[in-house]
Amino acid sequence: MQKQIQQLVRLAGMKAKQFRQDGFEVMEKGKNDYVTTADRALDVFLTAQLQAWFPQDPIISEENPISRQLSQQQHQRFWLVDPIDGTDDFIQGREHYSVMVGLLQDWQPILGWVYAPESDRMYYGGTSIGGIFTYTGESEPVPFVAKTPPVLSLDSCKVVIGDKDERNYGDRIRAAIPEVEFYGLGSFGLKVMEIISGNAGLYIYLNRRVKLWDTVGPLAIAKATGLVCCDLDGNPIEFDPTAFDSDSLAHHQGILIGWEDYIKELRPRLAAAIRNT
């Protein structure tokens, strides 16, 4: 079934690219929060097939508000779907958007798929299959060997951060960590892949707008890689019903995802900087 899900996610990504060629409508669903007709069409496409394959499992998706009303405590497994992660990049014609699916079992992310349509690159894996894999196009999946980032030094401290967090906290973080070098891209999932690929040592997400469909797939992959996934206090990121808002499914915790040495060195300095904001 893993192969079928890979094919499904990739096909959804190809459909997203087709929407870009054919055109789509953009609607505002909240302040600075947009959705397109492509998001909604791909949401229906993905959830319908997953429900057909797994009729006993709830399918929770970003664009299907009915799914959020499910009595989650009655189930052991949930599929989380983000049809277009990085909608702003998708709308603006940039490349850093993705299609994501994640599997949450016993309140732990155990398997995830992150597909980047513009590069035709698939990442998938989790603790349930004992590793992570990648492939491009029609090639066969190969084990993905995570690459460690440059050693922390006064000249090298690359950190991924979103635009909102940089606006809100960037100056404080730079004051606490003068060597920090920020950069960002659209999709939450692709930001996590930047850390796994060794292009940066840490991803900071603090504004608490990220939802379960954003995190389950990428964190399943990150955990299988051995990355540390914690909050500013060093507590593991939680996925049980007490850890997120019951209506929006937004995480209560701020999120740090990174290599152990980066977390060990930078987390206390980040915590002090943010608490002083």
How would you summarize what this structure contains?
This protein is an alpha+beta fold. It has helices spanning 2-22, 37-53, 87-92, 163-176, 188-196, 212-225, 260-275; strands spanning 26-30, 33-36, 59-61, 77-85, 98-105, 108-116, 121-126, 131-136, 142-143, 158-161, 181-183, 202-205, 228-230, 255-258.
Write up this protein.
This protein has helices at residues 2-22, 37-53, 87-92, 163-176, 188-196, 212-225, 260-275, and strands at residues 26-30, 33-36, 59-61, 77-85, 98-105, 108-116, 121-126, 131-136, 142-143, 158-161, 181-183, 202-205, 228-230, 255-258. The protein is an alpha+beta fold and 277 residues long. It has a 7-stranded mixed sheet, sandwiched between helices. Strands 11-10-12-14-13 form a 5-stranded mixed sheet, sandwiched between helices. The chain is globular.
